User: Fold this.
Amino acid sequence: MALYFKTIRSSSSGNCLAIRTEQNQILVDCGFSSQKSCEYALHEHLSKPSDVDAVVITHNHGDHISYSSLRIMEKYGIQVWIHEDSISQLIEKHFNGYRFQSLQVKLFSDSQFRVGNLSLQPIELPHQPGYPTYGYVIRYRERGRCYKVAVAGDFYDGSGLLEHLINADLVYVESNHDPHLLELYPNYNSRFHMNNPNTAQLLCDALSRSRRMPIAVILGHLSLQRNDEAIAINEVREAMIRWGRNWDCRIYIAPRYEASRTITLI
Assistant:
């Protein structure tokens, strides 16, 4: 049985990641600006929306979950999982007065929870004040081997995340902006996001402590104006050179507005 990962959207305009096995399929976030764009993306990049078991929300910013996306979740009977500290904010920001009578909302705490044959461990991440934010370590056991996917979107300090990246089979992590481009195009909100050098350092710290290398590292949520794919990847490569290590690790950029290739972990 295989484990598959792909990004469907990864930018300040929308975020959606897909993880599936032969039995289950989950999305981490589903931030779309309209019901039409949400439904189209799910039809285009997944077998069919009704095959999605759950959407697991990282936080309540509109590029990660929205009223439009919730309407599509309700339409196809897709569970919405959110941290218990964030449910009131979800209702306040995204219900827009709509009752969502048949929306299946599930709450998790700081403990591990399961969606089908996938196990998820929430990781609290520092992001914008007032918006509780979580990454996830997603585990899947097959043939006596436990596969580990680490997902961390919006955050600005990776010190509490480091231990969760060690020995991951796949890492998706934010690399939002380049410090020099930020000087040219200042943005207050960038302080709540990881820059390329800090992401590169975090990855090298994790790889240096890992017994096995990830199949892939995916850099996500790149700013359109304050980052560039080549700059982000080069930052990681140069950090590896400074460490004096030649880690056999493929590095990808998550496309901003379209889906990535599918990565097979097994």
